[in-house]
């Protein structure tokens, strides 16, 4: 991890695949991740941690069991720990995630959509 200034738009330009988070920076025991999203993910939860979504571009719907939360550019939403959710990108979405180091993108369900955290070049 570098201690240089990082540009969010440049970092997102370097991300090629959807649903593959890349570490932009770390602060204390947390990672700041950039990710491109498209389509629907999987229903999952993070029993031990909250998860923050910040939409940079596009529209992201965070499906919860009791409602949908619609996020547009510059909107932030925190999914509380243990709450089952399913992100759904309307078109391509660029986003920033903030969560503890080691947090798995598919939370408690695993499966073939589980992605290792990648480093930006």
UniProtKB/TrEMBL annotation:
<dbReference type="InterPro" id="IPR014710">
    <property type="entry name" value="RmlC-like_jellyroll"/>
</dbReference>
<dbReference type="Pfam" id="PF07883">
    <property type="entry name" value="Cupin_2"/>
</dbReference>
<dbReference type="InterPro" id="IPR011051">
    <property type="entry name" value="RmlC_Cupin_sf"/>
</dbReference>
<dbReference type="InterPro" id="IPR013096">
    <property type="entry name" value="Cupin_2"/>
</dbReference>
<protein>
    <submittedName>
        <fullName>Cupin domain protein</fullName>
    </submittedName>
</protein>
<feature type="domain" description="Cupin type-2">
    <location>
        <begin position="38"/>
        <end position="96"/>
    </location>
</feature>
<dbReference type="InterPro" id="IPR052044">
    <property type="entry name" value="PKS_Associated_Protein"/>
</dbReference>
């Amino acid at each position: 991890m570098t201690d240089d200034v990082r540009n969010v738009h440049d970092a997102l330009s370097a991300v090629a695949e959807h649903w593959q988070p890349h570490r932009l920076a770390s602060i204390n025991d947390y990672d700041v991740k950039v990710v491109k999203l498209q389509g629907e993910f999987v229903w999952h939860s993070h029993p031990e941690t909250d998860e923050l979504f910040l939409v940079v571009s596009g529209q992201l719907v965070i499906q919860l069991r009791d409602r949908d939360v619609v996020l547009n550019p510059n909107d932030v939403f925190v999914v509380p720990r243990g709450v089952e959710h399913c992100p759904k990108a309307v078109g391509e979405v660029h986003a920033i995630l903030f969560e503890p180091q080691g947090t798995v993108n598919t939370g408690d369900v695993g499966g073939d959509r589980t992605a290792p955290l990648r480093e930006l070049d």
